[in-house]
Specification:
With 120 residues, the chain is mainly beta. It is built from one helix and five strands. Strand 4 and strand 5 form a beta hairpin. About 25% of the residues have low confidence.
């Protein structure tokens, strides 16, 4: 009799998750589940953040505070607005916190390189 083995899951995934108590700074329960590991900001996403800040009249060079890989629980990216509907599905993305001109900016990304500035 030949013993069959089941395929094993990889030890880590592209966006590993941890318990909801280990959320990114400023995030409440039920929003995202963040990985415990910082991540690098891809150049296209960094350029998009710089362009967004410039369009808002921010003249200082942004400095990276944190960048976390996040699995958001909906298309709202943890930053929903009242009266809006969002896709109810897990969305792999990231949260990037930057400072510029003495202010802090909380950017969220889903699957695209288009940033969403969270002002909640």
């Amino acid at each position: 009799m030949t013993e069959q083995t089941q395929p094993t899951q990889p030890a880590s995934t592209r966006f590993p998750t941890v318990t909801p108590g280990s959320l990114a700074p400023g995030l409440g329960p039920g929003q995202p589940v963040a990985s415990g590991d910082p991540t690098d900001v891809p150049p296209a996403r960094w350029d998009a953040i710089v362009a967004d800040l410039e369009s808002r009249g921010v003249s200082g060079d942004p400095e990276l505070v944190t960048a976390l890989a996040v699995t958001w629980t909906s298309g709202a990216l943890g930053c929903g607005k009242p009266g809006q509907s969002y896709t109810q599905a897990l969305v792999d993305g990231m949260q990037v916190i930057v400072t510029a001109d003495g202010a802090t900016y909380d950017y969220r990304f889903g699957r695209s390189d288009t940033p969403v500035l969270c002002t909640n």
